[in-house]
Amino acid sequence: MRKLSFAAAVLTAFMLLPSLKMTAQTPLERDDRHTATLISPYYFGPNAFPVPDMNDGTVYDHLRLELDGEYQPGYRGDRTTDIFIRANIPLFTDRANLSLWMNPIEWYRNSDRSIQECRLEPAVNSYDIRSGHTVGDAYVSVDILAIKEGARMPSLVIRSVLKSASDDGWHLGRYYDSPGYFFDSTFGKSFNIGSNITLRTALQGGFLCWQTDNGRQNDAVMYGLMARLNVSTFYLSASWCGYSGWEHNASNGGDIAHDRPMVLRSEIGYRMGNLEFDASYQYGARDFPYHRIRAGIVWYYDILKKHSL
């Protein structure tokens, strides 16, 4: 009980953090609070505030370290290549973990069309908007297994996530340079459909928010569906997820915010002892003009010393 209470205390602390005053380097320049700010996934790079990876209704009872390479060609002819890292750390119990992830570096190359549609200005502060590299945002999450899965009862996992403000990338159209956060809840249930074959399903709902450039924030509803087929040491998954902000309904008929990104994802993986090899593809179905191809390796370690892999 003490271990679970500790995890709950950590979750409470993270839930209170967004209520504190958070500032970033983004200038507050716009006076009309009814006009869409264009601080949205459509006008920025693919890692500015992507649709978060879905939880499947479980938490990790092992230390999990992930390293991936990503290639993200844009619909406007732009190109992004980056490194993605993630760590999932059990919090002294198999019912809660701390998750950390970010893109420590990304290399980008903008096309004429992406520069025009994203409204990048070549002369702004002498930044090179054609090509270059930059550092991404950091995300910190506490994941709590609120309800364990039973014979008929699905599991329930609650996540509380904070996003940092970037040090650079604002004038390059790569990152928002503003803080954000999201909370979500995921129900998950596994079904045995054969020898060494299981089907995992998950349903997600949540709330996502980020600061914009005129003193307000954009609030969005999160959603997601997932199905994963596990066959012995292989798995294959598909998911549909996204979030929907409110600025797309500009009351004065101003620019469309394009703040309702929706994506489709597929992933395949192979588990071999403490290692897992995976590859995935993401298609931007709405307000997210990028494909994403990701491939990498995951390492597991039994840090709690009481569970077998």
Describe what you observe in this structure.
This protein has a single domain (2-301), classed as monomeric porin ompg (Porin). It starts with a helix and ends in an 8-residue tail after the last strand. The chain is globular, with a radius of gyration of 20 Å. The model is unreliable at 1-31 (pLDDT under 50). It has helices at 2-16, 112-117; strands at 63-73, 79-90, 96-109, 131-134, 138-147, 155-163, 180-194, 197-211, 217-231, 234-245, 262-272, 275-286, 291-301. The chain is mostly beta strands. It has a 12-stranded antiparallel barrel with strand order 1-2-3-5-6-7-8-9-10-11-12-13.
Task: Summarize, please.
Helix content is 7%, strand content 49%. It is mostly beta strands and 309 residues long.
Architecture blueprint of SSEs:
Blueprint: H1 2-16, E1 63-73, E2 79-90, E3 96-109, H2 112-117, E4 131-134, E5 138-147, E6 155-163, E7 180-194, E8 197-211, E9 217-231, E10 234-245, E11 262-272, E12 275-286, E13 291-301
Antiparallel strand pairs: 1-2, 1-13, 2-3, 3-4, 3-5, 5-6, 6-7, 7-8, 8-9, 9-10, 10-11, 11-12, 12-13
- Beta content comes to over 45%
Task: List the secondary-structure elements in sequence, H or E.
Answer: HEEEHEEEEEEEEEE
User: How is the biggest beta sheet arranged?
Assistant: 12 strands, antiparallel, barrel
For this structure, what is the CATH class? Mainly Beta
Give the overall form. Answer: globular
- The fourth-level CATH homologous superfamily is monomeric porin ompg
Find the count of extended strands (DSSP E, 2+ residues). Answer: 13
Distance between the termini: 25 Å
Any low-confidence stretches, pLDDT <50, length ≥5? Answer: 1-31
**Mean pLDDT level:** 85
Q: What is the radius of gyration?
A: 20 Å
For the biggest β-sheet, the strand order reads 1-2-3-5-6-7-8-9-10-11-12-13
Integer count of domains = 1
Assembly level: single chain
Backbone structural class: mainly beta
CATH topology: Porin
Second-tier CATH architecture: Beta Barrel
- Roughly what percent helix? under 10%
Number of helical stretches of at least 4 residues: 2
